[in-house]
Amino acid sequence: MRSIGLDFEHRRLAEQSIPPPPPPGPDEVLLRIHEVGICATDRELSKFRFGTPPEGETYLVLGHEALAQVEVGNGQWAKGDWVAPMIRRSCTPACSHCASGRRDMCLTGQYLERGISRAHGYLMPYTLERGDELLRVPESVLDVAALSEPLSVVEKAVATALRAHPMEPRTALVAGAGPVGILTALLLQLKGLTVTVLSLEPEDHPRARLLRDAGIPYLRDRRPERADLVFEAAGGALDVLEWVAPCGVLLLIGASEEPLPLPPLRMLVDNLTVAGTVNAGRVHFEQAIADLGRLPRRSLEAMMERRDLDAWPKSFDGSPAAPKVVHRFD
Ligand SMILES: [Zn+2]
Ligand SMILES: [Zn+2]
C-alpha cells in the first residue's frame, strides 16, 4: 500500500510501497485513514531536522494528525466508528508520568510519537492502533476533525496559561498566525477573553482576513497593547515578554531555538510567569473534540485546504495560504 515518509538511507522524503498491516491483535483495531493534516513539524521532519525511524528500520511514515474510521473493531470499537488517534506512546519502562497516563508530561524524553519518533505515522491507507489510543469523533464535527490534534495542543497551552495567571485574565495576545496561533486565538475568544493576533503576514493575507472575519483584530506593524496572557506561537519573536501585562503569563508554544531575554527585575516586580507546553493529554484531546463543535465553524473550515494524496510533494514546502493542508485518502 502507498505511504509517504522519510527514507533515512537516502535522506529524502519519498512515497514508498509498504506491506498492509497484519490482522489486529486482541487490544488492537484496524483503522482506515481518511484525512491527515500536515503541519510545521512535518515540514521540519521533511528536512531531516529531527525524526527517528522505528527500531531496525530506515523508513518512517509521516503524518500525526489523523482522522480515521474503524475497519476491523474489537470489544471497545465497532466497524465504522470515527476516531482520532493520540500520537505519543509511553517511554519504556514507563516513568511515573507516562504510567499515570500523562505521556505528554514524560520525564525521560524516551517516549515514542507516531509519525515523528520511532513509530510510523498515518500517511498510509490502513494502520493498526491500540483501542485505548483512540478518541471518538462525533459525526457532527467530522468535517473539521482533522484539526483535533493541533487543537488538543492548544487546549493544553490555554489551560496551562489560565491556571498560571494569579488573578482573572481578561486580555490575550497571540504572536503567530499559523494553525496553532489561529486555533489559540479562537479558543481564547470562546472562553470570553479579548484577543489580538500579531504576525508577519500582510494585512490582506487570507489568514489575517480569517481572523478579522472571526472578530479578532490582526496587527502586523503596530505595537500591541500589553495583555494578561501572551502566547508565542510564531517561533521566534524576541521582545515578546515586553507585551505581557503585570501579573501576566507568557506561554511558549512555538518551537523557537532563539534564546529568550528574561529581564529578572521586571519579572519579579510585575509577578510574571513564563511557561512552555507541548503535546497533549487525553483530557485535552477530549476537550478539543468537544470544542470543535463550539468554535466558529466557518473559521475552522476556512483554515483548511483539502488536497488529494497525489499532491503531497508541494505540501511539505513553504507556507500555504490556508493554515492547514489536509490530505484525504478517498
Ligand atoms: Zn502537527
Ligand atoms: Zn515517560
Structure description:
This protein folds into two domains: 2-136, Quinone Oxidoreductase, Chain A, domain 1; 151-276, 3-Layer(aba) Sandwich (Rossmann fold). The chain has nine helices and 19 strands. Helices cover 23% and strands 28% of the residues. The chain is an alpha/beta fold and 330 residues long. The chain has helices spanning 40-46, 96-99, 148-164, 179-190, 206-213, 264-269, 282-292, 297-303, 312-315, and strands at 2-7, 12-17, 28-38, 59-61, 65-72, 82-85, 88-89, 112-114, 118-119, 126-130, 134-136, 171-175, 194-198, 218-219, 227-232, 244-252, 273-276, 304-308, 324-328. The structure holds zinc ion (2 copies).
Keyword list:
330 residues; Rossmann fold; seven-stranded mixed beta sheet; binds zinc ion; alpha/beta
